[in-house]
Amino acid sequence: MTTLTETLLCPERADDVASVADLPAVLPVVGRDTLVPLVDGREVRYANLDVAASAPALQAVADRVNQVLPLYASVHRGAGYLSQVSTALYEAARRAIGAFVGAREDDVTIVTRNTTDSLNLLAGCVPADPVTGEPGRVLVLDVEHHANFLPWQRDAAATVLTGRGTVAETLAEIRAELRSAAVEGRPYALLALTGASNVTGEALPVAEVVAAAHDAGARVLLDGAQLVPHRRLSLAETGVDYVAFSGHKTYAPFGAGALVGRRDWLDVGTPYLAGGGAVRRVRVGGTEWHDGPARHEAGSPNVVGAVALAAACEALAALDPAEVREHEDALRRRLVAGLEALDRVEVVRVWSDAADPVGVVTFTVAGYDPGLVAAYLSAEHGIGVRDGRFCAHPLLGRLGFDAGAVRASVGVGTTGEEVERLVAAVAALVAEGPQARYDVVDGLWVVVDDPRPVPEGSGLEGLLATAALGADEAFGCLPD
Ligand SMILES: Cc1ncc(COP(=O)(O)O)c(C=O)c1O
Q1: In what order do the strands lie in the sheet with 219-223?
Q2: What pTM, to 2 d.p., does this model score?
Q3: Where in this chain does the record put each Aminotransferase class V domain (predicted)?
C-alpha cells in the first residue's frame, strides 16, 4: 500500500507513468540492431540496459574513429607528417574534452584510461597538510563507488562520512564536518563526491556542496562517471575543482578517460606514471619532470581513445541538454513506476528527497537471487543488466542489500521499447517464475545446458565453453 507521503516524495509511484514503448533513441549507437539468441531458440534485438557499466559507441564516435584511423601514427614522438597530424588530433581532442566539462582557462585536462585511473592520479596529488606535513585530508561519503573510495583510503588521509536518509540531512552532516575540521585546525584539502550514484542515479546538489566545501577551504572532486554522460557539467559555472570520467561510459569505448581541473596540485603532484614523455631532462643523478598534462601521461598516448572521447563530447554537446534529460527521465520514471507496481519488487533509494536522478534504477525481486534475475533477463528476454553490489559495498551494506541487487540503466541510445521489455520481463518472472533451469557455477548464475550459440564471427568458442572454464579462469576476479 503506497502512502500519501511516499506518493508525494516519489511521484513515479503513482503508477500513472504511461507506456514509453514508442520513445525512440536520441542518438544512434553501434549495435542497436544486434540480435541475440534466447534459450528457447528465438532471436531478439538486444536490449542493452547496462549502459551505466559501459555504454555502446555512438555511431558518430565509430565514424570518427574510422575517419582518423588511416591518419594514425606515433604521437608526440615523430617528425613524420602523420605523426604530426596524430599529435594535432590528440591535442585537439584534449581541448574538446576539457571544453565539454567547462574547463576554466588555466585548468589541466589529462587523458587517462578511465575514472578509476583519474581518481588514482589525483589521489597522488593532494598536497600534504602545510602545518603538520601529514597527508592531505580527504572527506568522502559511504555512498561512493570503490573507485572514489579506495584511492583516498590508500594514498591520502580519508575520513568516511555515513550518508543520512535525506539529501538535506546529508548536506548538513557534510557542512558540520567540514566546518569543525577547519575550526579545529585539521582542515580538509578535498571533498570527493559522486556526481551521480552508480546505484541509484541520485546525487547531492552540486552548488550546495561546492559552497560548503569552499567555505571551509576544501576543494571538490566530482566523480563524473555517471554524471558526465547524462547531464551538462561546467567546472567554470559550478566552481567544481576537479572532475573524473570515463570514455566507455560516455559512448566512446576506446580506452580513454579524463581528469580535468585545477592546475596547481597537478603541476607539482607526484607524476602518475614515470616514463618517457613526462620528463624535460633525465640525468643519472636526477630528473626534471614536466608540468601540465604531460607530467602524468608518460608512455605513448591513446590517441584513438582521446579522439573517440572528444567525438562523443562533441556529439553530446550538440544536443539540447533538456532533451537528453527529458528522454532519460521519461525512461527512468517508467522503469521505477513499472517495477514498483509489481509485488515483491523493491526499488533501491539512497535519499528520499533526491532531485533529478540520472537513469539508473536498482531493484530486487523477493525470492530470487539478483544473479538469477539477471541471468533470466538475458536468457529468456535478451536484456542486459548488471547484478551484484556494483562496487559500492559500504552503501549496499548500509541500505540492507548485502546480497546484491539488479541494476537497469539508460542513456541517449536507449529506446522506450527496451524499457517496456524489462518491465514486462520482471512482471513475468514475478507471475510465473523462470522457464529455463538455472544453476550457480563458480559463483555465477548460468542456464543449465545453455543452448545459445556464440555470435558468428566473434571468434569465441561459446558461452558454454566460457562457463565450463569456470568464472575465475574466464573472467579473472569479477567486480561485485
Ligand atoms: C560512479 C562511478 N565511479 C567510478 C567508476 C569507475 O569507472 P571506470 O571503471 O570506468 O574506471 C564507476 C564505474 O561503474 C562508477 O559508476
Answers
A1: 108-112, 257-261, 242-246, 219-223, 190-194, 137-141, 157-161
A2: 0.93
A3: 48-422
